[in-house]
């Protein structure tokens, strides 16, 4: 799994049910960044749709997600419009 890169461009939905409201998209990538596969470096941007408005809000995240740890430090590194 080391050196595996996953590219993401998925819908962000309100709930897990079919037909749930789409709030926006999650775009970016994460990669296996440790030999044992327990750490993933992530760089993601959440694009939130403005409903009837054409303007989109974004929040960008960067950090290392540790799969075996109950907590990981993921930083908000930027945002646009409301954020």
UniProtKB/TrEMBL annotation:
**Where is the major localization of this protein?**
secreted
- Per its UniProt record, what InterPro entries does this chain match? Dirigent
List the residue ranges forming a coiled coil, or say none: none
For this UniProt record, give its keywords in alphabetical order, as a comma-separated list.
Apoplast, Secreted
GO CC terms, sorted: apoplast
Where in the cell does this protein reside?
Secreted, Extracellular space, Apoplast
Task: List, alphabetically, the Pfam families matched.
Answer: Dirigent (PF03018)
Relate the assembly described in the record: Homodimer.
Family, per the entry?
A: Belongs to the plant dirigent protein family.
Its function, per the record, reads: Dirigent proteins impart stereoselectivity on the phenoxy radical-coupling reaction, yielding optically active lignans from two molecules of coniferyl alcohol in the biosynthesis of lignans, flavonolignans, and alkaloids and thus plays a central role in plant secondary metabolism.
Q: What is this protein called?
A: Dirigent protein
**Organism of origin:** Hibiscus syriacus
Lineage start: Eukaryota, Viridiplantae, Streptophyta, Embryophyta, Tracheophyta
